[in-house]
Amino acid sequence: MASVKMPQLGESITEGTISKWLKQPGDQVKKYEGLVEVITDKVNAEVPAPLAGVLKEIKVKEGTTVTVGTEIAVIEEAVAATPAPGRASAQPPSVSAEREAPRESPSPGEDRGRASDESRTRLSPAVRALIEQHRISDAELSAIHGSGIGGRISKKDVEDYVAKRAQPAAANGEQRQRGAEAAPRPAAVPATPGTPVPLSPMRRAIASNMVRSKQTIPHAWTVAEVDMTNVVRFRQQARDSFKQREGIDLTFVPIIVKAVVEGLKAVPILNASWSDDGVVPHKEINIGVAVSVEDGLIVPVIHQADRMSIAGLAKVTDDLAKRARAGALTIPDVQGATFTVNNPGTFGTILSYSIIAPPQAGILAMDAIVKRPVVVEGDAIAIRSMMNLCLSFDHRVLDGVSAARFLQGVRRWLEGFSEQVPLY
Amino acid sequence: MAQKTVIEAIREGMDEEMARDPSVFLIGEDVGQRGGVFLASDGLYKKYGELRVIDSPLAESCIVGVAIGAAVNGMRPIAEIQFADFIAPAMNQIIEEAARFCYRTAGDFSLPMVIRAPWGGGVHGALYHSQSIEATFAHIPGLKVVAPGTPADAKGLLKAAVRDPDPVLFLEHKRTYRLVKGEVPGGDAVVPIGKAEVKREGTDLSLIAYGLMLTYCLEVAEKLAAEDISAEVLDLRTIKPIDQAAIVATAKKTGKVLVVHEDTRFAGIAAEVMAIIMEQAFDALDAPLMRLTAPDVPAMPFNHVLEQAFMPNADRILHKAKELAAY
């Protein structure tokens, strides 16, 4: 018997929620085959079986959160020749044990599927494209029988697998899609009034984070009004050529992120975290960008945003948003933010009070850019594109003066925007 | 439709073009009274006379040079090089003059001429009667290079070559002359230059070939089918301008490609085809691109065993195709 423990799926992650068991007690499992889906703060991850054998017992039910290191299941090794009693290691008892693992292989002489790992893992561009297209997990891939030379998985092998997987009630339980695709989707269930809709793991994670934030962080809130006319004009001019050159849309987000980076450089205290031992300033400026997805919200991170040009920020933002919506973010993608930018303005809001994502010290909301009559120099009235920037900050870490100075820095940078500001 | 050989199709093609357009004439060694060494122009001398079917001296530079001069003056010459191996004395005329004439005159002159040349081995022709010359000439900008493998394509492409405004090197595989038979559509069936054709549909791998190798590849595809391997056969037909779209399409379809030619390997047509696939269909590939060619030795040997060793044949293509299928 070997116990399976809740793995640490990333630095600073202390607990995980069991989202879905991919195997049931009594099922055969192969080494590295997907065993269970775990939800951490924001990412779904598939935990592979540490060894081959039979799943004996599930110790933690779906939907339950446990700390890292907690025993979540027990697997009985595949071979009768048991290792030392009480052994809880995840190592297979011997090489032969692993080889005995159930793999649909014919006589040893013909079995190319088992041959060198190098050949197996040498994936052709066509196979890679299919894996991407059909969202095939590593665990699934390792279960595909390679018919090519040296056990190579060919395009046809993957196509056959996908066809088999698509069949309803697939005969073998090893065929499951990973991640959000397979996770229960309570949102899709029609809600009956008076009956609670089961919480999705993401909903649950958001809820606990928000409660923790509001209960521990004394939020303060302040707003600056920014004249975005120059930025709007520039974007209109640059948009088509940028799209042609880079293949992506030049949105306001990378420009605002750039302004925020400049603001944080000027007021570094906002790029810090509260701890009981003191305020911890951060070396890097990593900007989280909130992206709404089907059943909630996810905040991928632009790491080292202070080292990027506007064009670079645009590329990274676009990639993160696309992957967020495709459910293809990895754990590093959502870790390490030191400050967050939120963009509710796309939905027309004009004043947003965002909740800080701990342990950050602040979050900035971009509200809608609207044309308004504004009194400009010389007491004239002009039509300008105006936007509110709403900052929530941790009042333990900084005071209103620093917050206002930050907003002022951001505002000045944006209002002073011209064609001279380099895109690259 | 009638079953015809490649040589009959070419003869018909020349006959029809000469009947259609009085500016078309034929010049070459023994093309007149003798009807050509392969009898490609048999009967044409009698029909069109010595002014339109001209026996030339044994000088390829003269044959091509006269054709260039005639073309500049509004004629549409067909210059026959008796064997492609003999084309070297006309290199200067072809490369320095014919290929560049349109460019040199900024488009004021075009050079509507065809150079027919029987090429390829497998006929026990040894060093001077077996060579493949397509890669040498395909490298030259300004030339079109055509290499049909079936009677219908030979006739249709010859018609297109005669009517083309630019110099076309028309390569006739001499082994196919009487070996390959096929239906030839009646009427004025022109096959456009620059279009490859899928001669057999398949899904598991693609065989790309031209000339005699096409026949072998079709044979191999049949054998592969018996082993449940579905091979697509793409006939390039025109070597230059090469049909990139057709090459990319078949590569994307099967993800596995074997290019076959009997020309030597280094910088051969296969290399160009493979480069096109790498540039445009990399993401669809499921195996390394493969090629089967003659080895890089100076010329086709005379010794029968060595000739067999030099030329790709159906057995060797089959072996290589299976290797690709198994990858």
Keywords:
heterodimer, A: 424 residues, alpha+beta, OB fold (Dihydrolipoamide Acetyltransferase, E2P), Chloramphenicol Acetyltransferase, 7-stranded mixed sheet, 4-stranded antiparallel sheet, 29% helix, B: 327 residues, alpha/beta, Rossmann fold
> Stretches of chain B where pLDDT falls below 50 for ≥5 residues?
none
What overall geometry of chain B do the principal axes of the alpha carbons give? globular
Q: Report the β-strand fraction of chain B as a percent range.
A: 15-25%
SS elements, strand count of chain A: 19
- CATH structural fold name of the largest domain in chain B: Rossmann fold
Measured between the Cα atoms of the first and last residue of chain B, the distance is: 41 Å
**H/E element order of chain B:** EHEHEHEHHEHEHEHEEEHEEHEHEHH
How would you characterize the overall build of this protein?
The complex is a heterodimer of chains A (424) and B (327). Chain A is globular and about 85 Å long. In chain A, strand 10 (272-273) and strand 11 (280-281) form a beta hairpin. Chain A contains eleven helices and 19 strands. The N and C termini of chain A lie far apart (58 Å). Chain A is 29% helix and 22% strand. Chain A folds into three domains: 1-102, OB fold (Dihydrolipoamide Acetyltransferase, E2P) (Beta Barrel), CATH 2.40.50.100; 107-183, no CATH class; 202-415, Chloramphenicol acetyltransferase-like domain (Chloramphenicol Acetyltransferase, 2-Layer Sandwich). In chain A, the strands form five sheets. In chain A, strands 9, 12, 15, 16, 17, 18 and 19 form a seven-stranded mixed beta sheet that branches. Chain A has a four-stranded antiparallel beta sheet with strand order 1-8-6-3, with no helix packed on it. Chain A is of the alpha+beta class and 424 residues long. Residues 80-115 and 169-187 of chain A have low confidence and may be disordered. Chain B has 327 residues and is of the alpha/beta class. Chain B has two domains: 2-184, 3-Layer(aba) Sandwich (Rossmann fold), CATH 3.40.50; 197-326, Rossmann fold (3-Layer(aba) Sandwich). Chain B contains 13 helices and 14 strands. Chain B has helices at residues 6-20, 44-48, 60-72, 91-98, 101-104, 134-138, 151-163, 176-179, 212-226, 244-254, 269-281, 304-310, 314-326, and strands at 2-5, 24-28, 53-55, 76-80, 114-119, 144-146, 168-173, 181-184, 197-200, 205-209, 231-235, 238-240, 257-264, 290-294. In chain B, the strands form three sheets. A seven-stranded mixed beta sheet of chain B has the order 3-2-4-5-7-6-12, with helices on both faces. A five-stranded mixed beta sheet of chain B has the order 9-11-10-13-14, with helices on both faces. The model of chain B has no long low-confidence stretch (mean pLDDT 96). The A-B interface holds A 124-129, 148-149, 152, 154-156 and B 204, 255, 282-287, 326-327.
